[in-house]
Give the backbone structure.
Amino acid sequence: MQIASQYKWLWMMSKKILVWFRNDLRLHDNEMLVEAIAKSDEILPVYFFDPRHFQQTSYHTLKTGALRAQFLIESVAALRQSFQNLGGNIIILLGKPEDHLPVLVSKYEITEVYHHREVASEETDVSAHVEDALWKQRVNLKHFIGHTLYNKEDLPFPIKDIPDVFAQFKKKTERDAGVKPCFLTPQKINFVPTDEWGALPALTELLPHVDLGTLPTSAYKGGEQEALNHLYEFLHTGEDMALANASLKKNEIVSKLSPWLSLGCLSPREVYWKMKEAELSYGLKPYFNQIVVGLLWRDYYRFMFKKYGNVFFRPAGFGHAEMPVGQVDELQLSAWKNANTGHPLVDAMLYELNTTGYISHAARLLVALYLIYELKINWVFGAAYFEEKLLDYTPASNWGNWANVAGVGNDARLTNSFDFEKQLKVVDPKGLYLQDVRA
Ligand SMILES: Cc1cc2nc3c(=O)[nH]c(=O)nc-3n(C[C@H](O)[C@H](O)[C@H](O)COP(=O)(O)OP(=O)(O)OC[C@H]3O[C@@H](n4cnc5c(N)ncnc54)[C@H](O)[C@@H]3O)c2cc1C
């Protein structure tokens, strides 16, 4: 009896860190996880399916459509499996983090909570609510920033001075900052013991009002191992596959890594360093460079969100604050969404978006230009629709790109640089896209 209470005392004294997973669903290159393991006796991994992420928006779209919700469920299931392989698990809850975290902290006598900081306001508000609640329990919420290729601290400028012009951001960052090595994947973890790990929600629980009967089978499967496999395949056989199957030229090959990057199943540094390894075998391929530029765009939009915040969500963007959304022709908007505009290429691309959750950058540009400049519908309706449909949706990349295409972004050099007719010529010069997508 005496020994048991001694152990209980030791258990209470041990340092237990709750690791709150969000868009960082991986074990590789995860500083937050590595530090939690190093600085604690035991960790308690937790993931929340937050009902707010599955609600309707004010644009009558869903914040998360069925394909991305499914991809998310698969990704969390894969993370659970990775922890189970190490003899542990992850608590999975359907609910708001600010409601549940204080309860978990008390119940398991957690000493500190770790999480990754996001940049868009809805996500940072949740962090602030959690921080307030934990503060009352005298528990610290530690923030990590692990989503970018370049760490914020390594940039040659503070956030407020980051150049608005992408070309300048790229030039100075590549010249003056380095990409850090990846953190090692943990091989051994001590978990806080519990048998209340919680069940993965079904798609119908997340989207109870959506008709899921006609949900297409996605070509993309969520999860860290799927991401690493896809990266390997792309780096080692991507060129052959792409050239054999599609209407692409060598410099138009796309990696399709974005869905995994968005949920953090894949780290951008992992992509970078694995690409450097591949370069040793195959030399510098033009599309390797294209990926690095893509990752820099991704960092840029994320840092711009940190710099300017909600401006990117305003219909006027960085333009005149009073600019109205304008009258929306609901019939035309609905035809655009349903791939029924009558323009064969635009419709083929929207059809691909609706059925797979992915279209290439060139295709995104084309359908966005069509909505904004041909149908004269305000860009925010398109951005909200992409938010629902894209597997790779992230607030900064989506709303940042849309604002720039609409000419209301913060990079003055991009204003008026887009043209529908020009884009039409670059996007499918051989007319093969239509054949591919409808096949
Ligand atoms: C209107 C519009 C909306 C967009 N919405 C999103 C979005 O919600 N989420 C998203 O990840 N990307 C978005 N993009 C950017 C880009 O189109 C996609 O990242 C890219 O098509 C993903 O395909 P990939 O993985 O094959 O890219 P690759 O060309 O192989 O590039 C490698 C990676 O770099 C990043 N990247 C490349 N280009 C961009 C870019 N212009 N901006 C930001 N990141 C980039 C992606 O993470 C991508 O996976 C949008 C672009 C437009 C024009």
About this structure: The pocket of flavin-adenine dinucleotide is lined by residues 254-258, 261-262, 290-291, 294-295, 297-298, 301, 360-361, 364-365, 368, 386, 390, 392-394, 397-398, 401-402, 405 (CB under 6 Å). The mean pLDDT is 90. Strands lie at 16-21, 42-49, 91-94, 112-116, 140-144.
